[in-house]
Design goal:
Elements (H helix, E strand, L loop, with lengths): L7 H32 L7 H52 L1
Length: 99
Amino acid sequence: MADIYITLDTLRTTSTQLKEIVDEFENAVSSSEALESDIGRPFGRSELKDQAEDFEERWDIQRDKLKDGLSDVREHVDAVIEGVEKWDAETAIALESEE
């Protein structure tokens, strides 16, 4: 297995970006409701609005699954950051005490 090197800054950036994506997914429901409202009933017909509502209902389910998965990934990234920082601090203390 190949070694992979990723800086803590890159991991922190990744965590921040994942949080922004999750936040965007959480706010997407209100955006979809606004879209459905904006569509209205052109020419007195509701087919377009009905199709948009159907799509949004199905996408809401998938979006929630994706949001949960991304939240889990972010938790793992944060745990790696925390673990490396803890190891770094403990190692620094151990090296100082050897001097």
